[in-house]
Amino acid sequence: MNPPAVPAAPSALIIIDMQKGMQRMPAHTRNNPGAEAVIASLLQAWRQAGQPVVHVRHLSRTPGSPFWPGQDGVEWQPALAPLSHEHVVDKHVPDAFTHSQLARWLHQRGIHRLVVAGVSTNNSVEATARSGGNLGFDVRVVADGCYAYAQQDFDGVAHSAQTVHAMALANLHGEYATVQTSAEVLAALAGA
């Protein structure tokens, strides 16, 4: 007689800041225009697999921000809105772990692996992945499931959104997280 199969440990999909306010940013200053479709496919796969999903929402403390509470910029993009049973984390800083009880929520459910997607790669995604790695979680960042915006560095040199995105992923990979494609992440989910 075979022993009962041990269920695979859950992996939480962490979707960061996919709010309507992000759609107001100039499209020509960002990379990866297909990121939202990738995130939607991840969300669908996680739901079908019955795996936990965490939606992170930024609530700004800066008056006039599109993410100031009470404005429609705070609302979820419809295709990525949480279901009633999915966990929502509100944050006021880039890192979803700061002052949110996210780590406790994950530990209480025995969740050790996190798959992170959203915006922006070099801000909230990077901050959350760094903290997750530092807290001992097995963090996977979905390279094609996040995006960044063009910006200047401290010396005033302009960098494309793709360069900013790639540098943020390089900062994370092997140190705080493992950077993977959505195909790799979905294959791992299917094999779980």
From TrEMBL:
UniProt keyword list: Hydrolase
GO molecular function: hydrolase activity
Cytoplasm keyword on record: no
Keyword Hydrolase: yes
Domain Isochorismatase-like: 11-183
Protein name according to UniProt: Cysteine hydrolase family protein
Annotated organism of origin: Vogesella aquatica
